[in-house]
Design a protein that fits this description.
With 262 residues, the protein is of the alpha+beta class. It has two domains: 130 residues, 2-Layer Sandwich (Fructose-1,6-Bisphosphatase, Chain A, domain 1); 113 residues, D-Maltodextrin-Binding Protein, domain 2, CATH 3.40.190.80. It is built from eight helices and 15 strands. An eight-stranded mixed beta sheet has the order 4-3-5-6-7-8-9-10, with helices on both faces. Strands 12-11-13-15-14 form a five-stranded mixed beta sheet, sandwiched between helices. The protein has a two-stranded antiparallel sheet with strand order 1-2. Strand 1 and strand 2 form a beta hairpin. It is globular and about 50 Å long. It comes from Achromobacter pestifer.
């Protein structure tokens, strides 16, 4: 696996660079937008980036599977499957809020073993790989210890994403923590890996929205699961995720969620 993972890390970084190049002409321009059937926003750039990444993967690894937000799935039964979100945070991208990024992950037998989170507007990049320390801008990064949940900084992408039955869980965690950060999108999970925040929670997500977070956060010393404490994978593509930089705070947050959800 080591040789394969080394090669895939280099390849995934190259994909991230090429996605940045495609972004470049649009970073200061409001793009034309369309609505998908689920009422979420999409741009021509979403489609263009994913199409480019898929072509590159098919050329380099024709026996690997692909799971993309815009282009669907192929060969999900393959040992290795690439998971792509060309623009995670399309609404912030349209609004010019620089928290959007390209997310690239590699699954092995359904488990994320490689994650790249690339942010073209800020030029931040996190790289996480199974069994290795997470890198941010080429330097090892770590989550931070948090002695009490009451001292924690919590992030969530958007409270509007929670279904009515999920809101009590979010509210319980919101009330227990000291500070809240809203609207950080995928960038919030990179910042958690770098020890800038303590807990992150989200709902209404798909696997492509968070697959890279898993090796990135784990490789930085943190914990990320679904709201029941189960590992996130192709076999458990939960729409609800919870991450923490401190394992004890993750356990405490899980207990809060379980109690709130009944």
């Amino acid at each position: 696996m080591t040789d394969t993972l080394d090669d895939c890390i280099v390849f995934a970084e190259r994909l991230a660079e090429e996605a940045r190049e495609l972004y470049a002409p649009y970073l200061n321009t409001a793009p034309r937008t369309d609505l998908k059937p689920d009422r979420s926003l999409v741009t021509a750039l979403d489609h263009a980036i994913e199409a480019h990444l898929r072509t590159r993967i098919e050329d380099a690894y024709p026996y690997h599977g692909i799971y993309g937000e815009e282009g669907g799935t192929v060969r999900l039964d393959a040992e290795y499957v690439w998971v792509l979100d060309p623009i995670d945070g399309t609404a912030p991208f349209i609004a010019g809020v620089p928290v959007f990024g390209t997310l690239i992950a590699l699954l092995r037998r359904g488990t994320p073993v490689l994650g790249v989170m690339d942010f073209p507007a800020t030029r931040d990049r996190w790289i996480g790989a199974q069994g290795r320390a997470t890198q941010h801008q080429g330097q090892t990064c770590h989550t931070r210890a948090c002695g009490h949940l009451g001292d924690a900084m919590l992030s969530t992408s958007n409270p509007d994403f929670y279904a009515p039955e999920e809101l009590p869980a979010f509210q319980a965690l919101r009330e227990r923590t000291r500070w809240r950060i809203y609207g950080g999108c995928c960038l919030a999970y990179g910042l958690l890996a770098s020890g800038r925040t303590d807990v992150a929670i989200d709902a209404k997500l798909a696997l492509y929205d968070y697959a890279p977070f898993i090796p990135v956060i784990q490789g930085a010393g943190g914990v990320i699961t679904d709201w029941d404490g189960r590992a996130l994978s192709l076999d458990n593509p939960s729409s609800r995720i919870l991450a923490a930089g401190d394992a004890e705070r993750h356990r405490e947050a899980l207990d809060l969620l379980r109690h709130a959800m009944g």
